[in-house]
Amino acid sequence: MEAVPRMPMIWLDLKEAGEFAFNAAVKKSAVSVPRDFEGCSTLRKYLGQLHFLQSRIPMGSGQDAAVPVTWTEIFSGKAVTHEDIKYEQACVLYNLGALHSMLGAMDKRVSEECAAGAFTYLRDHFPHSYSVDMSHQILSLNINLMLGQAQECLLEKSMLDNRKSFLVARISAQVVDYYKEACRALENSETASLLGKIQKDWKKLVQMKIYYFAAVAHLHMGKQAEEQQKFGERVIYFQSALDKLNEAIKLAKGQPETVQEALRFTMDVIGGKYNSAKKDNDFIYHEAVPALDTLQSVKGAPLVKALPVNPTDPAVTGPDIFAKLVPMAAHEASSLYSEEKAKLLRDVMAKIEAKNEVLDQFMDSMQLDPETVDNLDMYNHIPPVLMEKCAALSVRPDTVRNLVQSMQVLSGVFTDVEASLKEIRDLLEEDEAQERKLQELLGRVPPAPGSPPGLAEVSKECSKYLELHEKASFTNTELHRAMNLHLGNLRLLGGPLEQVRAALPTPSLSEEDKQVLQNLKRILAKVQEMRDQRMSLEQQLREMIQKDDITTSLVTTDHSEMKKLFEEQLKKYDQLKVYLEQNLAAQENVLKALTDANVKYAAVRKALAEVEHKWNTTVQTLVASYEAYEDLMKKSQEGKDFYTDLEGKAAKLLERARAACQASEAHRQQLLEREMKKQPPPRPTAPKPPLQKKPLEMEAGGPEAAELGSL
């Protein structure tokens, strides 16, 4: 796998700057940066100096020195203006993350962790109401995308370095985890509406990568099983890798050629591994192949992280050009309070993320999708792909009759050719038998010169035609078998839609089964409600922290009273914290109820899965029969053309065989007549005693002569 072509990565466009009453030269150099690491350095310096400026001059929202700041919103292209210097900082920080994402998508595969760090700092330290492209949902999506791509880069390096199979599997599994988080965000209706048309492209690529890297993880778990000589486990891991790769291939339709190359390369590797492992286990090791769900799941190893951003790091920002403007005591106290708020947010987020991780792992293990857990509605309709085939056959009512007639014509020509070749073979065998008989009677002498020509050529051509007929006969038999296989399905597709619907399997659930299903759906709805409430409370907390500015109070507060002031101010978050604690505590009870409901759902789930499998198989079989029709007609016509040509040749050869056999018979008669003339006349004999035996001689009227005469 170290030579697998690289998958493309998602990168973000940079925002365009508009109005900002700042030094024009500084502004231009900061917003029109080159697309390289020097550009990243310029943005970091500009961000730091903006921070220094803000700490001395009241340029924030609603403050005396605030000026309009305009930037273009990425997704809509609209200009968005705020009178807040923090908006300028936020946009520069966004561009820093976007530029790192652009550099990370290049061949060198670096900088993704820096992009994640920039977006994380932007999400945690700035308001989310500035513009759509800097909302909490979009920034969280960007962070997970960047972390996933950073982990993907690490996976590429690990495979190139031939790291241990188990480690590579865990690294790949973590890629899947990051992309699942990104996919959840992309599937969120609010996020989708914010992203617009780009959402579908990103979602399709991310979903394809989830299956692809899951396949890579199971491939390396299979390789580890191979190293441990667990040959049964090896087969099931490679089988799972193959299944997941096939899902990735389905989702890769419309993706660029680089993706298709990577998928083809990986299919060659996994397909070869699976075929070899299955063959070895079937014929050599004979180990039982366990079910995949009985094996320990692959836990991801998060070996990348969002690199922290420090906007005031002197190694990055350079000297503070505003150092002599005003004292910073009040701003220093505000910074301390900001750190207290950040600590509060970190503590709360640690609890939320821990619970979310447990919830995500639990739901992944359950494999319960609220949207598909109840798919009974699909059985009430004929699927569109089948309706399309039925409609196509409805305007071609003679489909089945044409196919049957074509095959009947083919069978007739086939029979004629077979009869002609059999007659030729019988003529040749009869001629050969008469020739042997003549030679036996004449003393096994070779045929006399002047034997009629043509039989050897006829025999040679007959053998050639028989060989062609024998090979084509197998094809003809297979063609008839295929026709009989698909004929019933074609009749069904060409008939009334009610018959088609009746041919599709449907589940039969008891009232108790329906109650079990409804109960499960109710609890799954509770799980989603708990998730939504948690996200809402988290968003409220973040917004409160962002708006919480106590600079005015700090100016009039004595330094010795600062700690007390902080404690009093932080109490405003207590109510939200209580609500969050209640939400987190409820998770255990909800998951217990879900576990119980899932146990009762197991039998229903199995029955529904079996019916769905039969339903899908039936649909695929009917579609395959429709798609096989044109091929059967084409091959039938090719068979008719072949046998029509062979029939003509066989008929001509039969005429030649008859003529050659007649000539050969005439030649044998000539030889017989000449041989008869060579026989000496009978000698006179003396009267014989009554009891004396006669010598054994060939007489003209004896049985030998009679046998010659019969020829």
Automatic annotation (TrEMBL):
Localization: Cytoplasm; Endosome
GO biological process, alphabetically ordered: early endosome to late endosome transport; endocytic recycling; protein transport to vacuole involved in ubiquitin-dependent protein catabolic process via the multivesicular body sorting pathway
Domain of life: Eukaryota
SMART domains noted in UniProt: BRO1
Gene Ontology cellular component annotations, sorted alphabetically: endosome
Gene3D superfamilies per the UniProt record, alphabetical: alix/aip1 in complex with the ypdl late domain, alix/aip1 like domains
Stated name of the protein: PTN23 phosphatase
Biological source species: Platysteira castanea
Gene from which the chain derives: Ptpn23
